[in-house]
Design brief:
CATH class of the largest domain: Alpha Beta
Structural class: alpha/beta
CATH superfamily of the largest domain: CoaB-like
Helix content: 25-40%
Distance between the termini: 24 Å
Number of strands: 22
Strand content: 15-25%
Number of helices: 14
Shape: elongated
CATH topology of the largest domain: Rossmann fold
CATH architecture of the largest domain: 3-Layer(aba) Sandwich
Length: about 400
């Protein structure tokens, strides 16, 4: 379900924002609302909350929200940010990069597409400062719809009237469809650990949480790809829209992976356990048993198996989790795939929301700055767009 962040600012046209919320919800879109102090002079947070079915955000310094950096979360979660009505003041803040309230801070922090529906007095609209701000915002990729010409609330006539909510809704839906460069592409992502049983209660595994793979699956879904997520045990919420296959062992993961070939893109983030027990005990091995040696046998190398498969993906990407000689070990894996993402996991990367990686191809090696795993996912999928479209 696409996520819309709607900013309603201080114009008499704010009442149209309520109708816009209703229309967006009818299109099965998730709608979160930021109501500016000016907007709250015309409509109430309660009205917005009832129609959207979600809490309404009003304050940059809310102690309940900002303990978790609420403005950054709002900025990152949205698939599109809609400002309706967009006042001259909010346009100016956005153009100048000001961040003195919740709405302007989110506009500065978001990477989502922006759609503005201006509403203001005709002279305010035609003022050179507003027109300069309009040009600046358009140059930065902000989309505008309206304003319309007509009788304004102040009694004057001319350009400045906010377009009807139905037209905003139609424009938004079209824009969401246009931002799907991977539509028609099939992607397979492996994530999380695998568990290799020793007896009915014990197994060999690792500390992978699946966070990076799940973030990649979500980034692919946002870009319109069909996503198959093959995941080991994980407590993470399932990415909505993905075809998810839950597995336990490395062999389970390979069978699930192979059964969904061919794909355009495969990204292998899973921390596949390299070995399994040679002999599985059908009964729990008792503490007093003389188990001095555990015999192990290697598991299949899933990345190498994909690389040599007759239905090899058009673009094959591996992850290299290393604790020493990170780049050297990662470069050795490039014979198996097109790109490698390498990271040093000896400092608590497993289970963390943050990471630092190197992006390697046969010709390049880039050190990406420390960032969240979602940012790594978005950056990687942006590279995939260029390779697949």
């Amino acid at each position: 379900m696409p996520k819309i962040l709607l900013i309603i600012s201080g114009s008499i046209a704010a009442y149209k924002g309520l109708e816009l919320i209703r229309l967006l919800r009818m299109e099965n879109l998730s709608v979160k609302v930021i109501l500016t102090p000016g907007g709250a002079q015309f409509i109430t947070p309660l009205s917005c909350a009832v129609l959207s079915g979600q809490p309404v955000f009003t304050d940059l310094f809310s102690p309940t929200e900002e303990t978790e950096m609420g403005h950054i979360r709002l900025a990152r979660e949205a698939d599109m940010v809609v400002i309706a009505p967009a006042t001259a003041d909010l346009m100016a803040k956005a153009a100048q990069g000001r961040a003195d309230d919740l709405a302007s801070t989110v506009l500065l922090a978001t990477t989502a597409p922006l759609l503005m529906a201006p509403a203001m007095n005709v002279e305010m609209w035609h003022h050179p400062a507003t027109q300069v701000n309009l040009s600046l915002l358009k140059e930065r990729g902000v989309r505008f719809i309206g304003p319309d010409s007509g009788e304004l609330a102040c009694g004057e006539s001319g350009l400045g009237k906010m377009v009807e909510p139905s037209l905003i809704c139609t424009t938004l839906l079209k824009a969401l469809g246009e931002d799907k460069p991977l539509k028609g592409k099939k992607a397979l992502v492996t994530a999380g650990p695998t568990c290799e049983p020793i007896d009915p209660v014990r197994y060999i595994s690792n500390a992978s949480s699946g966070k990076q793979g799940y973030a990649i699956a979500e980034a692919l879904l946002k870009k319109g790809a069909e996503v198959i997520l093959v995941t080991g045990p994980s407590s993470l919420p399932i990415p909505k829209g993905a075809h998810v296959i839950t597995i336990q062992t490395a062999e389970d993961m390979w069978k699930a992976t192979e059964s969904h070939l061919p794909v355009d893109l495969a990204i292998c983030t899973a921390a596949v356990t390299d070995w399994r027990s040679e002999a599985f005990s059908p009964q729990k091995i008792k503490k007093g048993s003389a188990l001095s040696v555990l015999s192990l046998t290697p598991n299949r190398d899933i990345l190498a198996s994909l690389a040599t498969h007759k239905m090899r993906p058009s673009l094959l990407i591996g992850f290299a989790a290393e604790t020493e000689n990170v780049l050297e070990n990662a470069k050795a894996k490039l014979s198996k795939c097109d790109w490698i993402i390498a990271n040093d996991v000896k400092h608590g990367v497993f289970g963390s929301d943050n990471t630092q990686v190197h992006f390697l191809t046969p010709d390049t090696c880039e050190a990406w700055p420390p960032c969240g795993k979602k940012e790594v996912a978005e950056k990687l999928i942006a590279r995939c767009e260029g390779a697949l479209t």
